Amino acid sequence: xxxxxxxxxxxxxxxxxxxxxxxxxxxxxxxxxxxxxxxxxxxxxxxxxxxxxxxxxxxxxxxxxxxxxxxxxxxxxxxxxxxxxxxxxxxxxxxxxxxxxxxxxxxxxxxxxxxxxxxxxxxxxxxxxxxxxxxxxxxxxxxxxxxxxxxxxxxxxxxxxxxxxxxxxxxxxxxxxxxxxxxxxxxxxxxxxxxxxxxxxxxxxxxxxxxxxxxxxxxxxxxxxxxxxxxxxxxxxxxxxxxxxxxxxxxxxxxxxxxxxxxxxxxxxxxxxxxxxxxxxxxxxxxxxxxxxxxxxxxxxxxxxxxxxxxxxxxxxxxxxxxxxxxxxxxxxxxxxxxxxxxxxxxxxxxxxxxxxxxxxxxxxxxxxxxxxxxxxxxxxxxxxxxxxxxxxxxxxxxx
Length: 400
Fold this sequence. Notes:
D-Amino Acid Oxidase, Chain A, domain 2, FAD/NAD(P)-binding domain, alpha/beta, seven-stranded mixed β-sheet, about 25% strand, six-stranded mixed β-sheet, 2 domains
């Protein structure tokens, strides 16, 4: 494809990764991000399987290793903080629930942006107000004023993408997993260490504390409930809700709720998936969570975003026609996405049982997970299928 002028919306993971590859293939790229500045921190994510292959090809693997949280495993603990089951980072031959490359979302986004900013125009504090695909070009008016014309617009926003909703309308299907999760940062204490601690509470709730590499601790609170609009509440209302939901939780929850009062980075999401019959419409195409969010439960969000960005950019580089490029992108990515989204509706109940008996039974099963003779079986169950795609070498194909 000849040099194209492309707008990418969203500067989290898929957006900057896509911008890097597009610019590497000689395209003129602008990334627009609603946040006023780079967003630091965020929850812990992992880079595994085919996603790891992508960052290797970007030359970023060593930098990611240097910025990981260095999490060593998961301890499932009771009210007294006694470990009832433990899964180490290297418990399975492959990568289990905890990958070798665990990193804060903001830390990975920062590395991706830094890796591309010398040849990509990043436009923070702005968003799309109107978008019109004329068939030959895409006309965009920005919230902060000004209009631009692009050859293509690529939407790399989150699960609730406003640009996607504006373009695709009722084609967007959201699959709810009847789960809410809140993420935020709390002050680090001596007992936090390098182990993720997971505490289940009757009623399908859990409180988790995870180490980071910034001198703080990442907390998340989860509770099972059908979509109730909580994600649309003000932060003050969300904090009040969480205090109510976890008032009787015990363990270190009082400490977490006290920190919640002061935190400025609370993010409450209704956990779910995005399912789309198509990922493109005219000269506009979706990538990452905006197209095929698989939910944090899948363990595949980062890999899908990185691989989708890599595949889409590569197909645009080798096809003169964007229609064929979009079709090739979807043909390769669709099976990978379908497998990643194969999360059973009852998965949250398995992770956070509703009764004390269910919690005890879950701990017993997890203790068996690393037992000789069972490790291979549980490794297959607990490890995301992050390598279930064969990534093409677009640069090699262009050379030949």
